[in-house]
């Protein structure tokens, strides 16, 4: 199943499918080199400024472009700002206190300013007074003031005006019937902005059950309201709506999403615990349960390990201080961590790798990969060896890797395993071609020599002689094999 | 300045001009000196409409980026916020306004310019914070379709796909329809509208409705476009998931092109002047603008990357030869002629230098083992091999913790190429992903399922092979150097979306009714009546012009494929491309992911 590179190449050549190969590799590269050379040689002829074409400032922005100008004008203004600040400091009070005063002052001035403004000058003023009532309760429903210009428009005209960004009042749509016609008109116009505006109006003037009931048969409007509630963070109303619609899975996910906003791990854990019972799909339910269990574990491990690390009693923590806490890390990262710091622990402890493997039903492959990476990083070659050793019932040992030994070799190599360790696993790669290419790549001479010997390939073996050091044991070995009269070479 | 916009069949400078006019008008409404506070995501798109000089002519003296805290102390009469209508930006503006020194004199006036549309929701929000009354002008600037190049328009609405297909919020479709109305006002009514997909149907409906409701919009301009083709992104979810293999596509995949600009690692662009060797290597990324104004780039952008090297070397020879000419210039006249050509030659040389460097950077990546392995798997999936079982390469990538987006792209690609995965396979991938990258990614996986990118196979039926064969999505004999089919843009895979456009032009969709039914959403045709005087009498041999509008995003490779069709000798159709957003697989996936806290390590 798992193809290795050599196979892959063969596959491409033999199959009718064309990969994105650079057939004319050398040609291509030389062409690029050619144009590069030409370009460079031309520099000597005309040593002009490269950027003459288009004036470009230091940061690479073309001079005169908007983003360039922002930096330009902003930097000149910062200097003037600094000038101002210093004069301010010289002048009177401390600078730090300054903005505070400003904001408290401006709030009240705003409040006053609002009343002075002609009221309901805009559409949204007319639309809803939820904002106003926070500041000026007496402004609620001054119906008389709407009279001026908007009384006679039909729902259709109203929507059309709103689409053009014109001022409109919705208060005159008082009956449920009128409101629904208005909503339908807005939906027919497809302008989300207007639909949302009408929904805000309905949300404010209709009883919740009625609003929900009517939206249920108006899917487009419904989607807009859901989107609006998500945007504005009205989580409670959103959940009520979804529940009313029986969209239970969405309720569950939407609630689960909330955990991302909880920074405190204990609280997050408790929150996740509450999520476990929510109506997720069967598949997701087990994931959410695992998420909760994992965080619970991580909290326990974190507390213990932080303590261990601080006390300085544990050698592994002294040698390899932790770079970050394990809280909120993915499962595989956690497994890596536990293989790194808690490899030898008995299955009974929460932090032991075997316990994690069991609890979260981590597949063998995943487990072996992670454990291998962790132990290789610590250069614990005995552990690596043990990972792949199995005993049969007669007590014979055998090497087995659920991930294929070529993968083992790659991981070991990435962790700078010494050649002696590496070649042991290269030798175990079953496919001869792969074994040879890996052995050659990583200079496992013994494996190369033995493989050629097994293949009875005298030519290749002779050729390999130049790859090993002169006078080395490897060279001697090659010579002795080549001189062995008992081998029947195939060439 | 904007020469690249007039190079195509349709002169898009007019659209840019209209945008500039509207901007000037707004600026003049706020009399006196001004400072603009920018929503950073807007500076790029605005840069395509106007330079700073235009703003300066209208008394814009300072410009700042929008951020919380106190506004800088600029001595101006007006402070104007240029923002997208997003709630989180309203919070920042509120903070700015509340911290403004009310005691200062003269007081500064506040204004908001919403782009592209005023939002009642945002105004409501400002009102709840108690600052709405502080703004004198609250206006909108309908920057719907921004001209990117002579044949390319984008709305740059990055969340359009998510809003349309995940949240069923059609606001961006409304903006698309508005943009199309503006386009028709400038370039005439488009007589034929074709479409495929739910969103396409909505946009067409809105256009027809808008036309009916504003009879004044009936214009007397001779139509430039013959046909409009509206395509839903979810009709073709496959294409953006695959790695683009054109030059421009790869630049975007690897470095990301934003508003025609790309930022590149500076090392390869170090000035190699004599005597300066080694010191002062630039540390800031090199920023380059990429559009058809640059002759060389226009020539190579849409080529398969494997065909770029030979063009560059050919150019190098030509330029070298041109510079050699100076030795032959003997008379004063000849020398004068040579000198007069120098600026152009220098521009060509500098352009060649840049693209040689970029090509080298890309080559380092495309020749890497991992790029090869990834592409191998993609191509297997697209050609229909082993799409129904767990893929070992994907498993390996997860085990090695490759970037999650890469994993998601591959898994989604497999799902799309198999009309959904077997439940067992899907569950396996999901488990591996959340165990390795974190349980919270359940949310992202859920979004992908909702968008149809990742799903269980229903009814055990896989339609993809039929679609692939009928639309000839996989071509075995692809010619990368001298292509004869659009499949060259993915070295074998012909983008489904572009195939639909191609088949529409010839022989027409009737020939593929069966396949159209397998793809999501309705397909339709509408006609818009033209006054008799404006009906076109086609000259013999004159090409038709089709505007293809991708609702939910388009990739550079798809654009390249359409340009290829435009240039086909007997093609008969030229294409102009519009979209809600220029995307690639990575930016697209990102837009669908739940925003998560970054991990501490």
Provide a quick synopsis of the model:
Chain A: This is Spermatogenesis-defective protein 39 homolog. Chain A has 491 residues and is mainly alpha-helical.
What does this structure look like?
Chain A: Keywords: Cytoplasmic vesicle, Endosome. Chain A: It is found in: Cytoplasmic vesicle; Early endosome; Late endosome. The complex is a heterodimer of chains A (491) and B (601). The longest helix of chain A is centred in the middle third of the chain and has 30 residues. The N terminus of chain A is likely disordered. In chain A, helix 10 crosses helix 12, helix 13 runs antiparallel to helix 14 and helix 15 packs antiparallel against helix 16. Helix content of chain A is 64%, strand content 1%. Chain A starts with a helix and ends in an 8-residue tail after the last helix. With 491 residues, chain A is mostly helical. Chain B has a seven-stranded mixed beta sheet with strand order 6-7-15-14-9-8-13, sandwiched between helices. The interface between A and B is large, with 127 and 139 residues.
| First and last CA, distance of chain B | 46 Å
Overall body shape of chain B: globular
Helix content of chain A: 55-70%
What is the terminal separation of chain A in angstroms? 33 Å
The protein's oligomeric status is heterodimer
Q: Quote the average pLDDT of chain B.
A: 90
- Class of secondary structure makeup of chain B: alpha/beta
Low-confidence stretches of chain B: none
Order of helices and strands of chain A: HHHHHHHHHHHHHHHHHHHHHEEHHHHHH
* Poorly predicted segments of chain A: 1-26, 45-60, 77-150
Structural class of chain A: mainly alpha
Please summarize the sheet with the most strands of chain B. 7 strands, mixed
Sheet-strand content of chain B, in percent, reads: 5-15%
The Cα radius of gyration of chain B reads 26 Å
Query: Looking at the structure, what is the overall shape of chain A?
Result: elongated
Helix content of chain B: 40-55%
Q: Looking across the biggest beta sheet of chain B, what order are the strands in?
A: 6-7-15-14-9-8-13
